[in-house]
Task: structure prediction
Amino acid sequence: MPAKRRRRAGQSEMIATNPKPKQSRLTEILAHASGDKRFKILEAHMKKHQFKQDALIEVLHKAQELFGYLEDDLLLFIGYKLKLPASRVYGVATFYHFFTLKPKGQHTCVVCLGTACYVKGADKVLAAIEDQAKIKAGETTPDNQLSLLTARCIGACGIAPAVVYDGTVTPRQTAQSALEHLKGWIGHDH
Ligand code: FES
Result:
């Protein structure tokens, strides 16, 4: 796939702003990671590649599959585990067009479209959200309240179909429960 340079407004601010001291930020990220199964799956994937720095692109792909997009904490976690400077991880994540950085919506909703979730109706959940929010997966509502994304298996197949609302993995979603969850986030400004 040809590499295209990403042009994103605000990218430089995102890289530059990190008000917390590095160590305490990392401690927080690692504490958060210990309670989120997706980080464990990602770490197992890095281990499979023997934590080799050459595997960075591969690892970023896996991270995006698991989380739907690459947010700051995730990139810092990967850098820490692969012993790479954050600048290198951000550099690669922002260079390739197939990586999505944290979307601009105030809230994020990631619908898992992996096989287990799909066969249990994740497509209907996604369609209902797209219909209600009047956006497609990968887009943000015009009022910047909601960014809608999809992922490929977030490691929660036992509770399929799973949807992640602002970082919280939520089990057994239906079109109805998803719309209920998104009340207040959508339907204002369009
Ligand atoms: S397929 Fe959705 S969590 Fe595995």
In short: Residues 112, 114-117, 153-157, 160, 162 surround FE2/S2 (inorganic) cluster (CB under 6 Å). Strands lie at 107-112, 146-151, 163-165, 168-170. The longest strand covers residues 107-112.
